[in-house]
């Protein structure tokens, strides 16, 4: 009865080591992902970041579970003060010399509660604004 | 108490019960026999599942038969869909970031002296 994991694939015009750096370097993660507290690609390393809507933010708590340098990084993903735990993994596959296939897998999402402030509309709105704003600012600064 | 599809599937025993009943309607005893959990515990899970709208109990003579109502599980896939949207946006952001990094490198190589950092 477990929900199907989300699996998304992308091919980037960048070599594996560059994508790996964007996924695991604290400063680079801040530019496209989240304002992570800290990050090290080491199993057991714990980090957090906040995300959510304008009125509600959720502290995301993560713990690195798998590291294969240049190949795979996985961490747990849960919300402070809420039940449920999920796991996110990023896998990289070189496509020739200059391209990289990324496979993102997120499983266990269905274990999260569906509470009023945790509703899916607010979630989508929040994600959209975070991503849109972050990306916009980054593009304008560059 | 929260009573929705997410609460219903939060517990592994309840997931197993849904799976069992989705294949064939069973009476309470038949369900309980399938698990190494006490009969009252199973009754409690079934009660929660009915309150969450995933099971209905029909009286058939002296028997109480559990029938699955799986439409609500769609809410779960809708929930998962939100995350899919979120990740698609994040992976787009990663792509843009990688492209920009590329342009940065190219600029540095072309005119290293004129480019000033903010």
Describe, in plain words, how this protein is organized in 3D.
- The complex is a heterodimer of chains A (142) and B (118).
- By secondary structure, chain A is of the alpha+beta class.
- Helices cover 27% and strands 37% of the residues of chain A.
- Chain A has a six-stranded antiparallel β-sheet with strand order 1-6-5-4-3-2.
- In chain A, helix 1 packs across helix 2 (26-32).
- The longest helix of chain A is centred in the last third of the chain and has 22 residues, at 120-141.
- Chain B is mostly helical.
- Chain B contains five helices and three strands; from the N terminus they run ααβααββα.
- In chain B, a hairpin with a 2-residue loop joins strand 2 and strand 3 (63-68).
- In chain B, helix 2 packs across helix 4 (39-51).
- The termini of chain B are far apart.
- Residues 114-118 of chain B have low confidence and may be disordered.
- The A-B interface holds A 1-4, 6, 8, 10, 12-14, 18-19, 22-23, 28, 31-33, 83-84, 102, 104, 106, 109-115, 120, 123-124, 127-128, 131-132, 134-135, 138-139, 141-142 and B 2, 4-7, 9-10, 15-16, 18-19, 75-80, 82-104, 118.
């Amino acid at each position: 009865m477990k929900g199907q994991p989300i699996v998304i694939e992308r091919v980037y015009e960048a070599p594996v080591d560059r994508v790996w750096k964007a996924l695991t370097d604290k400063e680079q993660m801040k530019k496209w992902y989240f304002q992570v507290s800290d990050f090290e690609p080491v199993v057991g390393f714990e980090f957090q970041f906040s995300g959510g809507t304008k009125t509600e933010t959720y502290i995301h708590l993560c713990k690195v579970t798998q590291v294969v340098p240049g190949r795979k990084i996985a961490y747990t993903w849960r919300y402070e003060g809420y039940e449920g735990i999920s796991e996110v993994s990023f896998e990289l596959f070189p496509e020739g010399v200059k391209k990289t296939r990324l496979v993102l897998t997120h499983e266990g999402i269905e274990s999260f509660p569906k509470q009023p402030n945790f509703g899916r509309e607010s979630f989508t709105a929040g994600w959209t604004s975070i991503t849109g704003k972050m990306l916009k600012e980054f593009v304008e600064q560059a | 108490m929260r009573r929705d599809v997410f609460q219903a599937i939060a517990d592994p025993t309840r997931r197993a019960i849904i799976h069992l009943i989705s294949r064939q309607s069973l009476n309470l005893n038949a369900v309980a026999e399938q698990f190494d959990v006490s009969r009252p515990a199973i009754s409690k899970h079934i009660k929660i599942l009915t309150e969450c709208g995933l099971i209905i109990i029909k009286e058939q003579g002296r028997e109480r038969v559990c029938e699955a109502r799986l439409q609500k599980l769609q809410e779960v896939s809708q929930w998962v869909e939100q995350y899919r949207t979120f990740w698609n946006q994040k992976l787009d952001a990663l792509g843009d970031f990688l492209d920009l990094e590329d342009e940065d490198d190219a600029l540095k190589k072309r005119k290293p002296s004129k480019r000033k950092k903010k």
